[in-house]
């Protein structure tokens, strides 16, 4: 009975196994999670990675982050001409948002793994949620051992690797006996590179300036084109004037030689004159503000800037003046006292000259009421040398009788009343002779 019971249990297990295998597909041992693989415990997370070429990557291959195994590869399926790889990570493993999935080779025997690391030189940034898919543009595959050996074989056999020996031989022959020169060249080259490194900012600024200049030229493209189009005609004109230009340059050479000789001969005198001129130039520099004020006043003469600012209410004003620039008047006025002045003309005393105090009226307001000195005679002015001056719109002067020389104190002829003693009649000061010291001041 016991043997018969055991045979029945074995038959039942065999039948269950056959039924199970016939109802489900079996893809080998790697299709089942192997004991000891990472990423199958409680709290494990699942991600999907799209890879263009998985190479020899198999299920249960390790998944690494920073060269540490944190999970394993699950099922792999084909989707849209690329592989969709399921990745299972252990609890606490966070995939950064800037992750790059790379299929790499663990050993030379062909074992491969899947690395989930940020790009080289960048720190991890953020993380992606479990169940997310790493896109195809974030994955790559390292060359396998077979691809590396195949490429090396192409280089060795048909890539010109055999010519490396000839290159080394020729290079050795070129350097033989010139070791010191080569060392000196390397030293100078090191100094040159150091200078370039210290001038890096200036070089960058120069390149930026050239870039701006190129941009300016690009903006003036039409102008440059027109200039290049008209330049040949200008060159033709210069060619036609070539003899004259050569003659002018030759004359300029002669002038330069003469000027050089003159400067060499008069150098000492020129330096001395400049040294003597230095006080004058310094005085002009010291008087600079006054010169500026004078120039400002000269532009508004004779009114002055205050009159222009306060008296003029418009944009301009008119000034009408009559200037007597005849020779006799200039002799009696502007040229008086010089060799061009009138002969025998009396000079009015200047401030500080003897008689200046009594020659001019000290009290102009009381002059009309003052009684002239006794016996003062009227001295007529000299007759004008030319025709009388007629103002525009003014009356035509008539011929005047010769002035009387009767003393001011004498009675007038024919019983006419005497002139008022309070209104003295006297000529201008420049035509009045100087009184003697006994006359007293006016």
TrEMBL record:
Domain Mammalian cell entry C-terminal, chain residue ranges per copy: 126-286
UniProt superkingdom: Bacteria
Domain Mce/MlaD stretches: 46-119
PROSITE patterns (UniProt xref): PROKAR_LIPOPROTEIN
Biased composition (Low complexity): 391-408
GO cellular component, one term: extracellular region
Name by which UniProt lists this protein: Mammalian cell entry protein
